[in-house]
Amino acid sequence: xxxxxxxxxxxxxxxxxxxxxxxxxxxxxxxxxxxxxxxxxxxxxxxxxxxxxxxxxxxxxxxxxxxxxxxxxxxxxxxxxxxxxxxxxxxxxxxxxxxxxxxxxxxxxxxxxxxxxxxxxxxxxxxxxxxxxxxxxxxxxxxxxxxxxxxxxxxxxxxxxxxxxxxxxxxxxxxxxxxxxxxxxxxxxxxxxxxxxxxxxxxxxxxxxxxxxxxxxxxxxxxxxxxxxxxxxxxxxxxxxxxxxxxxxxxxxxxxxxxxxxxxxxxxxxxxxxxxxxxxxxxxxxxxxxxxxxxxxxxxxxxxxxxxxxxxxxxxxxxxxxxxxxxxxxxxxxxxxxxxxxxxxxxxxxxxxxxxxxxxxxxxxxxxxxxxxx
Length: 374
Fold this sequence. Notes:
The chain is of the alpha/beta class.
């Protein structure tokens, strides 16, 4: 009996390994993780070359990790266990107050930001465009009262100071920090890095001020909501017990627009309206705003006479661009991460006279694709 007890822990361990291995073999493999909002890896090809160069082993480890039995449970268990040990942010996401899941600070690259500001200024000057830059501050910098007491420092103040120092007079700069700080509305989603529709409306008002446009009053909108939105910070956190967000669609019934989206500027399939509501039934609801990330988006409003606008942007622009659609006959929205054609011919061909640059401050400081403006 003593010998049995002596080896009991080893037997239990081996039994557990055997059961997990058996489950790994027999359980069906899913192609997509709903919690993490990503496609899971496929079983790697087995060839002499992949085995010899080690790529098979590396890819198989990823495959094993992605399809490990009860993976979501263990990922969540590890995330909450790290918090119990006092390591809040072990997954790159802080579990903050009031249900906020906030990304840890990005590494600040002042050289990249300086270069990007140069590209932005040069493009506006080269094409003789009226230009405005709006940089959305990071959630962590604006929600510091929500963060755990021990957290890394955000570099927003350094980045915004660098913008003030390096942006030329050819581009107006719209700083949202004071406006966000003075608002009592929910500016950022709790489970996502983007700003809410209310936050986007504040940005829209600020852009209207810079562009000398009368903003559409809040009373013109009726709000429809969609529950159960889990965003990017949730999917990276492993904190599966947190409550979801609500997505608000601010609808102006007088707005009648047609939208085309593509990666290369083609306009084959028109869509009526700025909201792509099919996405509200999907895991990621944020693409309800202009269908998410595309290289090229064209919004046409035949009832507007405010000219033609170019928006060079990341995904922070999607919601606020819907508000701007009331003012311009045509808006051309370009995401340089996907659109690789020269922009100056587009400006000349379409008769564009104004450009907005709309970026989250982290992307503005790190995105090498802004160099395509040159």
